[in-house]
Amino acid sequence: MDQTQGEPQKPAQAQEPIHSVDVSVTDIASKDIVAIADLFSTMKTALVTMSSAFDRLGGQTEKMVSLSLDIKLQDQACFQLLVSIVK
Fold this sequence. Notes:
By secondary structure, the protein is an all-alpha fold. Helix content is 74%, strand content 0%.
């Protein structure tokens, strides 16, 4: 109970409704700032995509080098086997 008024006190949530305000970026920032922010966002997305692609290409290059060495070794082994058979 509120001792000054003699009435029960309302919970804080029920005292006054909160009004929402719809505000967009263009209401606060100029069109140039919004355009620059969009450009940075697009550039960041492109950078992440390109980084991922280059990482995959690097991994594939390493695998191809490894496979080419294995193939070369196998080729030499087969050639030596053929030479020993022919002799």
